[in-house]
Amino acid sequence: MLDRLIEEAPQFFSYYNVIFLGKAMLATIGLSAVGCLTGIIAGLALALVRLPTGVLWWPAKVIAVFFTELFRRIPFLVTLMLIFFAFQLTGFDLSLFVVACIAVFLIATAFLSEIIRAGFEAVHRNQWDAAAAMNFSLLETVRYVVLPQAWRIILPPAFGFFVLFIKDTALASQIGVVELTYAGRVLNNKGFSAALVFGTMLVLYFAISYPLARLGVRLEARLAKARHR
Amino acid sequence: MSYTLQYGQIWPYLPFLLDGALLSLQIAFLAFCGGLFIGTLGAAGKTFGGPIVKRLINVYVVFLTNTPQLVQIYFLYFALPDVGILLSSYVAVLIGMTLNAGAYLTEIQRAGFESVRQTEMEAAETLGFSRAQQIRYVIMPHVARVLFPPLSNHYILMTLGTSMAAIFGVEELTGRAFNVNAETFRSIEVFSVTALMYIVITVAATAILAVIGRVLLRARMRII
Amino acid sequence: MPRLDIVDLKAAYGSLTVLDGITVSVGSGKVLGLIGPSGSGKSTILRVLVGLLKPAAGRVLLDDVEVRYSNAGDVKRVRDQLAIVFQQYNLFQNMNVLDNVTIAPVKIRGRSRGEVEQDARELLAKVGLADKLKSYPDELSGGQQQRVAIARALALKPEILLLDEITAALDPELVSEVLDTIRVLATEGMTMLIVSHEMGFIREVSSKVAFMADGKVVEMGAPAQIFDAPSEERTRDFVSKILRH
User: Within a 10 A sphere around the Cβ of C183, how many other Cβ atoms?
Assistant: First the structure.
């Protein structure tokens, strides 16, 4: 079996294939990155909506909580299918990559809004009090006082989520997005042995995920140190 | 292009989907148990083993936690036949999920073991507990309490993770949703009902596990 | 001419009644000292005044105009006219001393940065921290942080200054530097409402002292009366316990 792999290797790692895999890897990282970047903005909005205390805010708060709890309890594959078919049936002509990004965006928003909320709650109550007593609006308080303190607590788990989700992007292959897993299936269908193809896939995913995970750990250590000046 | 929602067409398929949900739960349970066993061995090895054992377990954990479960199962399902091991899709998924869980649960349990503080052990020793008694009265309750929340959480994640078995044709909940979709073409209806079922399953599981955790182990658990 | 009147104020945290009908007042240029055991509600009055806790009943009149705490506009106005210094200083941890003092006047009140900075430098010099402008709160001692908090409150040019047990969280040797600052303000005619355990200081600086217990005002009068010749049993009890130290 090993000789078969060695035999196939040069053809497998042909110039064209390497470019193909490279682009697929970019798609994989891109999917998670775009979803998480947009998700953190929407997640921030959701976290903000849950702050005010007035009764008028109740409907928005309920929607925010509902949304957050919902998308954390549905498997990514099912969310992906729902979004895929929703867009297909409403006639929007979106690329598969965008459809997958939207699915990632929804899930990322849900998870990241929880992370952001935890960050807000980690900022001491007396910071909020002092700002309120000086007539800061809620948004001003978050902008000038809370967020500058909370981002150090938010960034490590948010980055961790991004790294985590890179593995979940593999499911996007199911709707035809040309990311790494899809690329693997294409090459497998072309005739390359499964061991070579999927073995390489595993190694490539590892090559993306592990360094980023280590970066996340170093980032967390750096930020923790900076807080206790 | 207009599309009217017709949930009525899905209604007759509900028992079919629910059966699939049962299979999802079964897969998650079996894989979790297997993973827990592997994890205990792995955690023990990493805490008490020699340098080579530690290295090997570390490679296993690091590799499986940094690669997608889907691709791991692809490998088992498509690559092993080349060396003569033919696995049915159900078995491939089960083994894949078990190995994956084993890696994560090794880390979780290792953290749990290491959280038993030296001081607790010393206190128990000075109170005259024998080694066996120390394990039974000090270490195990503490470890159980500390491990229950993250293990429960991972179990819930695994329940959601069973959905990728559909890709291999396994007739669990998502797989059956694909079937119903193929027959009725009521995609939105089918998948929204499926989503709802997953939500119900996870909410119920979270609540049950939280109650068990709080009552039996006085573990710190969120109910919802 | 700032004037604060509190009439029969009631407030609660959930089902726990903290203020049970408080009636006090402070006139222009005067200092009202609030003393009493922990849990008597002294700090709660200040929190209600500045809008951090909604009153359950009663009235608050600022310059003879009622403040309706259920009305957002009224709350905004009262926060413009009152400034509070907290027990835990509550300095913004992500800003240096100068920014802590200037941020509200510049960003919230909209005054010009140059003018506010000038003010801030003067105030910080006045509290003795002219050399700490670029320091961060976690680089300062408790007493220094509290003095920054006072400068921050003063930068808002409040009509009435509320001081909530501002020395209670400080190490003993840092207390006098803070009290000195307040003493200066009193002689300058700042209208103040001071909640404190520092009996000697309260006695020295207040025009009027109110002794509170269980959410009510037990006795109110001139400092000499409250401390030397209290008419209520409860007050006598409290004062004698304090003076024994």
Answer: 14
Chain B residue closest in CA terms to A164 = B66
CA angle C109, C113, C117 (to 5 degrees): 105
Instruction: Please give, rounded to a whole number of angstroms, the shortest distance from the CA of B185 to a CA of chain A.
Output: 10
Q: Which residues contact B189 (CB under 8 A, 6 or more apart)?
A: B5, B6, B7, B9, B10
Q: What is the pLDDT of residues C165-182, one digit of tens each?
A: 999 889 888 998 999 999
* Chain C nearest-CA residue for A139: C108
Residues of A in contact with B174 (CB under 8 A): 75, 77-78
Q: Which residues contact C220 (CB under 8 A, 6 or more apart)?
A: C24, C208, C209, C210, C211, C226
CATH number of the domain to which B126 belongs: 1.10.3720.10
The alpha carbon of residue B216 is apart from the nearest alpha carbon of chain A, in Å, by 25
pLDDT in tens, C126-185: 999 999 999 999 999 999 999 999 999 999 999 999 999 999 889 888 998 999 999 999
One-letter-per-residue 3-state SS of chain A: CHHHHHHHHHHHCCHHHHHHHHHHHHHHHHHHHHHHHHHHHHHHHHHHHCCCCCHHHHHHHHHHHHHHHHHCCCCHHHHHHHHHHHHHHCCCCCCHHHHHHHHHHHHHHHHHHHHHHHHHHHCCHHHHHHHHHCCCCHHHHHHHHHHHHHHHHHHHHHHHHHHHHHHHHHHHHHHCCCCHHHHHHHHHHHCCCHHHHHHHHHHHHHHHHHHHHHHHHHHHHHHHHHHCC
User: Which of the listed CATH numbers 2.60.40.10, 3.40.50.300, 3.30.230.10, 1.10.569.10 matches domain C4-243?
Assistant: 3.40.50.300
Q: Is A199 on the interface with B (CB under 8 A)?
A: yes
Q: Where are the domains of chain C?
A: 4-243
**B158 with B32: CB under 8 angstroms?**
yes
**Which residue, C69, C66, C72, is CA-closest to C11?**
C69
Complex-level ipTM beyond the 0.85 threshold: yes
Phi, psi of C204 (to 5 degrees): -70, -40
- Residue B51 domain flag: yes
Among C108, C156, C161, C193, the strongest candidate for a mutation testing the A interface, having the largest count of A CBs within 10 A, is: C108
Assign A229 a pLDDT band (cuts: 50, 70, 90). very low
Alpha-carbon gap, residue A35 to A79, rounded angstroms = 14
Domain that holds residue B90: 7-217
Considering only CB atoms, which chain A residues are within 8 Å of C79? Answer: 132-135
Contacts of residue B95, defined as CB under 8 A and 6 or more positions apart, other chains included, come to B76, B87
Supply the mean pLDDT for chain C.
Answer: 92
Task: Compute the half-sphere exposure of residue A163: CA atoms within 13 Å on the CB side of its CA.
Answer: 21
Query: Where exactly are the structural domains of chain A?
Result: 2-227
DSSP strands (E only) in C63-190:
65-66, 82-85, 160-164
CATH label, A2-227, candidates 3.40.50.300, 1.10.3720.10, 1.20.1250.20, 3.40.1110.10: 1.10.3720.10
A vs B contact (3+ beta-carbon pairs below 8 A): yes
Paired strand residues for C212: C217
Chain C residues within 8 A of A127 when measuring between CB atoms: 90, 92-93
The arithmetic mean of pLDDT across residues C108-119, rounded, is 92
